[in-house]
Amino acid sequence: MEPDVLEWRVRMACFLAVFAAVAILEAVFPRRRRTQPKTGRWVSNLAMIGLGNLLTRAASPLVPAGIAAVAARHGWGLLPALDLSPGAGVLLSVIALDGVIYLQHVLTHALPSLWRLHMVHHADLDLDCTTGVRFHPVEIFLSAGLKSAAVAALGAPVTAVVLFEVVLNGCSVFNHANLKLPRMVDRILRLVLVTPDMHRVHHSVIIRETHSNFGFCLSWWDRLFGTYKAQPEKGHDGMTLGLSQFRDPTRLGLGNLLVLPITGDPGRQPINRH
């Protein structure tokens, strides 16, 4: 089986399992009361990931697992030169790729052109498991290109790339969840992983909070680079989610979201204006 086909099947199976589990937990243990109807948001948010995957699959050379297979055949990258054990190579690859995603996330807030794409994600007026896949198709496409370049530079094995994609998708669904974890569980988990309460701060309408907690999987990057914020200033129940310039839900349907990077007001973002 081709690596890109294997990656797609494994990712889809794992995504559906994690998504279903998190959606059920959200319904049983909600963290915040919804402000918008669920159905319309879910249709728009899930359609975005579908369109993004179609765009990326149409450009098969950008599929990271396929690039990993090519890199392995030609001996590209840093890891083959280090002659690590297979297990160490997989672990180091997953950690390094997570660091790349952290850097990518910071750049989407720092560069005006990328922020216009990324504000589609931040314009969600509620936060739940579907927000974790609500990215503009062009941003999904560009992210696949960056991950592919990182995979080639590292010489990451196919196994590591597929594992990382599964972990990244699962963590994105989990840390965007409207899920109330016991305080002690949250405190322990966030020593390593990004939890829903940790990432929710990043979706605050307050700009200085929007520019914090960029991590998707490992919480180490925010602590290491000084972008970690433990709690929102107004508390999780009192905070306002989204962006101040996009408060009308009737203008945040699928069609509006697709053209938002062109038609929308970027507001007082990005980081480099502060």
Automatic annotation (TrEMBL):
One of its GO terms (biological process) is lipid biosynthetic process. It holds the Pfam family FA_hydroxylase. Residues 91-227 form the Fatty acid hydroxylase domain. GO terms for cellular component: membrane. Keywords: Membrane, Transmembrane, Transmembrane helix. It is found in: Membrane. Signal peptide: none annotated. The chain crosses the membrane at residues 12-29, 50-72, 84-103. GO terms for molecular function: iron ion binding; oxidoreductase activity. PANTHER family: STEROL DESATURASE. This is Sterol desaturase/sphingolipid hydroxylase (Fatty acid hydroxylase superfamily). It comes from Desulfosoma caldarium. The lineage of its organism: Bacteria, Pseudomonadati, Thermodesulfobacteriota, Syntrophobacteria, Syntrophobacterales.
